[in-house]
Design brief:
Number of strands: 11
Strand content: over 45%
Shape: globular
Number of helices: 0
Structural class: mainly beta
Distance between the termini: 40 Å
Oligomer: single chain
């Protein structure tokens, strides 16, 4: 069992930055991959960035060069540094963790980018 808690969302103007955090607890050893998804209003949830247990990263084309995913294993925390934010980045951002048997989700944190 893994619990995920996101934080760091908020309201920011276009061009600004936010840093999201995802704190993991429970059976941390079972996590193979973590990532960030987002769900804009009225749209489907989509992958933003992912990082494997080996440190390999993947990004959606829409955020490459602007967002950076990272992790701190000592703190059991994953981060998403979001720079040069655009109004189209507005969404609920969810932390995701893929374990050996289950797929875990956080509750989500709202990111709103104003123009």
């Amino acid at each position: 069992q893994v619990q995920l808690v996101e934080s760091g969302g908020g309201l920011v103007q276009a061009g600004g930055s936010l840093r999201l955090s995802c704190a993991a607890s429970g059976s941390i050893f079972s996590i193979n991959q973590m990532g960030w998804y987002r769900q804009p209003p009225g749209k489907q949830r989509e992958l933003v960035a992912a990082i494997t247990s080996g440190g390999r990263t993947n990004y959606a084309d829409s955020v490459k060069g602007r967002f950076t995913i990272s992790r701190d294993n000592a703190k059991n925390t994953m981060y998403l540094q979001m720079n040069s934010l655009k109004p189209e980045d507005t969404a609920v951002y969810y932390c995701n963790a893929i374990g050996n048997l289950y797929n875990y989700w956080g509750q989500g944190t709202q990111v709103t980018v104003s123009s």
